[in-house]
Design a protein that fits this description.
heterodimer; A: 559 residues; mainly alpha; MetI-like fold; 2 domains; 76% helix; 0% strand; B: 378 residues; alpha+beta; Rossmann fold; OB fold (Dihydrolipoamide Acetyltransferase, E2P); six-stranded mixed sheet; 8 helices; 22 strands; 22% helix; 34% strand; binds adenosine-5'-triphosphate; binds magnesium ion
Chain lengths: 559, 378
């Protein structure tokens, strides 16, 4: 196939435009839905907004959402900042161990960890509470159904991602800034607070905002802990309004309920962008970097080991052991001689009968998401970094703005769209709908990854091909793609990891035909079939572990 | 060869050795150096990339821990491996200009200068801070940009802010690590003069690192040529230029023709046998030269002249192999009995290739230098 320069640009713009149309359709549907009565397309009403304003749970839910966002981010920084510091700026001897633990923890989806904590710490039958009761007679010591535990568990699960996001900024921090302070008579402590922290502040701030947005939008933990505990946040209200016992789900009202969340996330994204620009400007200045001087940890290394031990136990060991134990026992019980005699693999047999369809669907979901996501983002990135006209930059910006739409609202919008368009395009309840929604959601991340890689590589590589008489298409395939291949591989791995453990979007969109492993686990847990939920959890953990370790090898040079 | 002019040097380094990695396991980046810099002096460290200039500078600043030796600044013992004494950088009476400038990106020009004065440990009186900032910004022509964020400055402006920040502290010893190397050539040449003038007007003792020989010769009161962590020679620019004590220094400074030679006669007149014939040298850089000893005969390209007087010393007959016109002068590749000789002549001597000419190697500019491996005069 030969395409002239114009033709090729047009081809890629068409591909990129389909992504932008999807993003627009999603946003438009969300707004239209919020003005539609009872999921009916085309009629206009303010009823949903009036209903929302009159809702008793609304303000508490908004308040709780903010608490979850701020609480999670605070706990998160308590772990992620020291870890990042230790990895990038100290002589800590066992950095490999820490990195491995962080990577392994990626294999535990947040909803699995949340479930494990419910099994451990629910006030009535929680394994740990029962242990304390039988040992000391203290009853109901821990209550997992609280905002505190929701924040804490979310923070545990987000720690590795936050560390990996902050590491480059910490590694690239120009240590001559610190040295300039010290030869100017500034004490190390003062230099830390007045030079190091303020210089890193935009980067740390941007990461904090990013995880604040994530913390208020992910459904994993609030879905597993908040709903049974009657703790309302915006996402649980949205979910519950689509999941009524009587009558059909009301996606219009769900969209309306999502509006406060959309506003919150949109503000967050704007602050995020502003901070990123600032962080970039700071890093622009530093010239030739010397290898950073690694601080001697001295006796502080025991504190570091303590923190790693605490985090590793709470985020990995404890949940994992709980899941394994639960999978082997017929009902929740603390370890005892009696319990040991009841251990069996019977739940594995039960689960085996259910596993095939979700397993295949999960794999299809992952592959589909990657294909859509990569084809779209490669096109957008090439246009935005190589053609660079106003149109192309606008395409890129719109794609990035999709970051502000929480996954749950994206799902509501797409569901509403599928419902409305059901007679023309029968997407409702299919895996396709889930795949497209997930791919749109992943675009912000994948285009960012590819853009930064494509920008680092000078376009003269491709220009050299053009002036040697090689056509556009061939240059794109044989020069551009191979050159940014490491970034593509990284984007593929992260997208795989994320889509395999995604709960929110599939949960909103699946039908019995299109159930995946995460939705199966959620349903088993919701109906009290803990042992089978545990077996499925082990399955997804095993799959994710392989992916996570593969990504560790891939990203080792980066991280 | 050149003792510090003052009795008590401002900076005194004794037996200083620095190695990256554990001592003994890896080669020392700085190998047992002695150095004295006297008050008010501009001392330049010159050497090829990787020879340890930055390492030495950082050890003096206290940014890099040496593993043996001692450093005294202004009579204060700031490092001594024997007594285990090591003063941290913030308490040494120094300041430093970094190659990358290391300006604090979250502060304005004035804040960059004021921050160490206000929050540092060098005991600057509070009410003096504003005054000093204004003064130093004025001095460096930065007054009109005092409130600009440093991230918006050009390279040359950033360089001046870095210098302002260092000077505002009124250090006893100013350390500069290739402060001009990130600038383009024109600016570099212009700033050399300005920095030198400023520093000597203030009278601050300076240790200046560069790998550019022109910069070193222009700026230094005295300089040291370094190689592989050692000093090869210390002296004034003139001393080093006219009397390199080793092949390394001779090759590193100036464009020198170096020919293998053997000493033929010592005494009031020094004669050597070279591929060009027997020649007389005006300067002997070998400690106790003996007849028959092998050495190098050196003469700089720009010192060679067109000869006219057939009977005088050091006249050789050469043919022009190649001529390169470069404006004010012409560089020639000459051939003398099959031996190549480079020279640079004024443009009025425009000789086409193939022609024969007589060249005079002025005795007073001819040197005898020990080959590397021998010891030179010191
Ligand atoms: N952080 C480090 N770790 C290990 N070796 C180092 C380190 N920094 C420098 N070295 C080595 O020490 C030696 C001296 O380095 P130094 O930076 O002092 O050289 P330099 O003379 O300043 O060179 P340049 O002109 O390139 O700046 C070099 O061989 C270098 O490879
Ligand atoms: Mg250096």
């Amino acid at each position: 196939m030969t395409l002239g320069p114009k033709g090729f640009v047009i081809l890629l713009r068409i591909i990129a435009a389909t992504a932008v149309i999807c993003v627009f359709a999603m946003l438009a549907m969300l707004i239209i839905a919020s003005f539609s009565p009872k999921s009916e397309f085309g009629a206009w009403t303010l009823a949903n907004y009036i209903d929302m304003a009159g809702m008793r749970q609304l303000w508490p839910a908004i308040f709780n959402t903010l608490v979850v966002g701020i609480g999670t981010t605070t706990f998160l920084l308590m772990f992620a900042l020291p870890f990042t510091w230790v990895l990038s700026r100290t002589d800590f001897a066992s950095k490999g161990v820490l990195l491995t633990i962080l990577t392994v923890s990626l294999a535990l989806p947040a909803f699995v960890t949340a479930m494990a904590y419910v099994w451990l710490l629910n006030p009535n039958s929680g394994i740990f509470n029962r242990l304390l009761e039988s040992a000391f007679g203290w009853s109901r010591v821990f209550n997992v159904y609280s905002l505190g535990w929701i924040c804490f568990i979310q923070a545990l699960m987000l720690t590795p991602a936050a560390v990996f996001m902050m590491l480059p900024a910490f590694r690239n921090f120009d240590s001559t800034l610190e040295e300039a302070a010290s030869v100017s008579g500034i004490s190390p402590r003062r230099a830390f607070f007045k030079i190091v922290l303020p210089t890193l502040a935009p980067a740390v701030g941007a990461v904090s905002i990013f995880f604040f947005i994530l913390a208020v939008e992910i459904f994993d933990v609030v879905g597993v802990i908040g709903m049974p505990g009657n703790i309302d946040v915006i996402t649980t209200l949205v979910y519950q309004s689509t999941y009524t016992v009587y009558g059909p789900p009301d996606y219009g009202f769900a969209a309306t309920l999502g509006m406060p969340l959309l506003a919150l996330c949109a503000i967050g994204v704007l602050i995020y962008l502003w901070l990123l620009r600032r962080a970039d400007r700071y890093s622009m200045l530093s010239g030739k970097n010397r290898a950073p001087i690694l601080r001697d940890l001295g006796r502080w290394r025991f504190a570091v080991w303590g923190l790693i031990g605490t985090w590793g136990t709470l985020a990995v060991v404890l949940p994992l052991l709980t899941v394994i134990w639960t999978s082997l026992t017929p009902y929740l019980q603390p370890p005892s001689m009696a319990a040991l005699s009841q251990l069996s693999f019977s739940s594995y047999r039960g689960a085996a009968g259910l596993v095939w369809a979700p397993f295949v669907n999960t794999i299809l979901l992952v592959i589909g998401t990657i294909v859509f996501s990569i084809v779209w983002s490669v096109s957008v990135s090439w246009l935005a970094t190589r053609v660079r006209s106003k149109i192309d930059k606008a395409l890129d910006a719109i794609v990035f703005l999709s970051l502000a739409v929480p996954g749950m609202l994206a799902a509501v919008a797409m569901q509403f769209l599928a419902l409305s368009a059901y007679h023309w395009v029968p997407l409702l309840g299919t895996l396709w709908l889930i795949i497209i929604t997930m791919a749109i959601r992943s675009l912000a991340f994948t285009t960012r990854t590819l853009n930064s890689s494509a920008l680092q590589i000078h376009s003269s590589l491709e220009e050299a091909a053009y002036v040697s008489g090689v056509g556009r298409m061939r240059t794109f395939l044989r020069i551009f793609l191979p050159v940014i291949k490491p970034a593509i591989m990284f984007a593929v791995l992260v997208t795989t990891l994320i889509s395999a453990r995604e709960l929110t979007i599939p949960l909103m969109l699946y039908s019995p035909r299109s159930s995946v492993i995460s939705t199966t686990i959620f349903d088993l847990q919701a109906t009290g079939r803990y042992d089978e939920a545990a077996v499925f959890s082990l399955l997804i953990i095993a799959i994710l572990l392989v992916l996570a370790l593969a990504s560790r090898r891939r990203t080792a040079p980066i991280a | 060869m050149s003792e510090p002019t003052n009795d008590k040097p401002l900076l005194s380094v004794r037996g200083l050795a620095v190695s990256y990695g554990r001592a003994g396991q890896s080669e020392n980046a700085v190998q047992y150096l002695d150095l004295d810099v006297s008050e008010g002096e501009m001392f330049v460290l010159l050497g090829p990339s990787g020879c340890g200039k930055t390492t030495l500078l950082r050890a003096v600043a206290g940014l890099q821990a040496p593993h043996s030796g001692s450093v005294t600044i202004d009579g204060q013992d700031v490092y001594n491996s024997k007594s285990g004494n090591s003063v941290p950088p913030e308490k040494r009476p120094v300041s430093m200009v970094f190659q990358s400038y290391a300006l604090w990106p979250h502060m304005s020009v004035a804040e960059n200068v004021a921050f160490p004065l206000r929050e540092g440990r060098r005991g600057v009186p509070r009410d003096e801070v504003a005054e000093r900032v204004t003064e130093v910004l004025e001095m460096l022509g930065l007054s009109n940009m005092r409130d600009r964020p440093v991230t918006t400055l050009s390279g040359g402006q950033q360089q001046r802010v870095a210098l302002a920040r260092a000077l505002a502290l009124r250090p006893r010893l100013l350390l500069m690590d290739e402060p001009l190397s990130n600038l383009d050539y024109e600016l570099q040449v212009r700033l050399r003069g300005q920095v030198k003038e400023l520093v000597s007007r203030i009278g601050v003792t300076t240790l200046y690192v560069t790998h550019n020989q022109n910069e070193a010769l222009e700026m230094a009161d005295r300089l040291a040529v370094m190689d592989a962590g050692k000093f090869r020679q210390i002296g004034s620019p003139r001393e080093l230029y006219h009397g390199p004590s080793s092949e390394f220094v001779a090759r590193f400074i100036g464009d020198m023709n170096l020919l293998p030679a053997r000493i033929a006669e010592v005494g009031p007149n020094l004669w050597v046998d070279t591929p060009l014939g027997r020649l007389r040298a005006g300067t002997n850089c070998i400690d106790d030269a003996k007849v028959g000893q092998s050495c190098l005969f050196g003469v700089r390209q720009e010192d060679i002249e067109i000869g006219d007087n057939q009977g005088a010393d050091n006249i050789v007959s050469a043919s022009v192999d190649r001529a390169t016109f470069s404006g004010d002068s012409i560089s020639y590749q000459m051939n003398v009995n099959g031996t190549g000789l480079q020279c640079r002549l004024h443009r009025r001597f425009d000789v086409p290739p193939g022609r024969d000419v007589l060249l005079r190697l002025p005795v007073e500019h001819c040197l005898v230098v020990p080959t590397d491996g021998q010891t030179g005069a010191s």
